[in-house]
Amino acid sequence: MFDTVPAEPDDDAGVIAVEEVVVCAAALLWTWAIGDVMAVDHQPLRPGEKAAWIAAVMLLPAAGALMWLLVGRPATHTEEAPATHPVSPRPDVHRK
After folding, report:
1. Could you read off the pLDDT tens digit of each residue along the chain, which spans 96 residues?
2. pLDDT at position 59, please?
3. What pTM was estimated for this model as a whole?
4. CA gyration radius for the chain?
5. What HEC string does 53-96 produce?
6. Which parts of 2-48 fold into alpha helices (H)?
7. What pLDDT score was predicted for residue 41?
8. Which of 21, 30, 41, 76: disulfide with 61, CB 3.0–4.6 Å?
9. Gap between the Cα atoms of 64 and 56, Å rounded
10. Domain Cardiolipin synthase N-terminal, which positions (predicted)?
C-alpha cells in the first residue's frame, strides 16, 4: 500500500549536534551570568553599575555574559578563616 523509500544518510547530523552544544553552552552561560550579576552584593559595585550589567547581559546575551565573566565580575578573595580557638604559643601555659 505505502511504498517506503530508504532514508538517505544525513550528512549534516554532526554539524547540527555541534550547533546544539554551542547554543546550549551559550544559554547556560547567559543564565549563569544573569544569576551571578544579581547575586553580587552592592558593595563591590558602584551605584547603578549592577543595573547596567544586568541590562548588558540581557540585551547582548553571549557578549554581555562574556564581558561580565572577563571584566565586570568582582574578584573574589579567599581569606583564611580565623581559628575559633587561638593556639597558645607555649603549650605548657594554660590560661584560666
Report:
1. 666 766 665 566 666 788 889 999 999 999 999 998 888 876 777 778 888 989 999 999 889 999 988 888 877 644 555 555 555 566 666 655
2. 93
3. 0.57
4. 27
5. HHHHHHHCHHHHHHHHHHHHCCCCCCCCCCCCCCCCCCCCCCCC
6. 13-39
7. 78
8. 30
9. 5
10. 28-73
Closest by CA to 38, choosing from 27, 53, 48, 28, is: 53
- Grid cell 552544544 is found at 21
Residue 59 grid coordinates: 540585551
Amino acid at 46: R
Q: C-alpha cell of 40?
A: 553580587
What are the sequence ranges of the domains in the chain?
Answer: 14-71
C-alpha cell read off for 68: 561580565
Supply the angle between the helices 49-59 and 13-39 in degrees, to the nearest 10: 170
